[in-house]
Write a structure and sequence with these properties.
By secondary structure, the chain is mainly alpha-helical. The protein has helices at about 10-40, 55-65, 80-90, 100-105, 115-125, 130-135, and strands at about 50, 135-140. A two-stranded antiparallel ribbon has the order 1-2. It is globular and about 50 Å long.
């Protein structure tokens, strides 16, 4: 006689998991924004360079922009284009021709080898307690 074990979860358990996942993603977005703000505060003359992919940098910029909490010296919320220009100048990265398109494509990455930044960030943040954006900075 064979037994079939249906591993589906009760709806309440699924809702709880989804709520926890949404909370983790929100926290990851807030931490990416904090790290991105720290990148913007770096002095370009210090020689800091971005060693990660430009797609990851554009995705981080878009996440920070969508949070709407990074302001300029006059208190205005920074534009996406302004943030990209500033971070590319600061980290000595060639600015993509279409930064928004690069961010959009990066966020839609699927696959085993390289997923979206937010997914990798959530994994690193909760499993290792790392700051993935700062890990991609080298100083000369």
């Amino acid at each position: 006689m064979m037994f079939y074990n249906n591993k589906t979860h009760m709806p309440a358990d699924r809702e709880t998991r989804m709520a926890v996942e949404a909370k983790r993603e929100k926290e990851a977005r807030e931490r990416i924004t904090e790290e991105f703000a720290a990148l913007l505060k770096l002095d370009p003359d210090e020689g800091a360079q971005w060693k990660g992919s430009v797609a990851d940098l554009m995705e981080a910029a878009h996440i920070a922009y969508m949070q709407g909490s990074i302001c300029d010296t006059e208190g205005n919320v920074c534009t996406f284009a302004g943030m990209v220009t500033e971070v590319c100048h600061t980290l000595h990265v060639r600015k993509p021709h279409n930064p928004r398109g690069a961010a959009y494509q990066a966020a839609r990455r699927k696959g085993v080898r390289r997923g979206a930044l937010i997914e990798r960030y959530m994994r690193m943040m909760h499993e290792k307690g790392e700051q993935p954006l700062m890990r991609n900075i080298t100083k000369q």
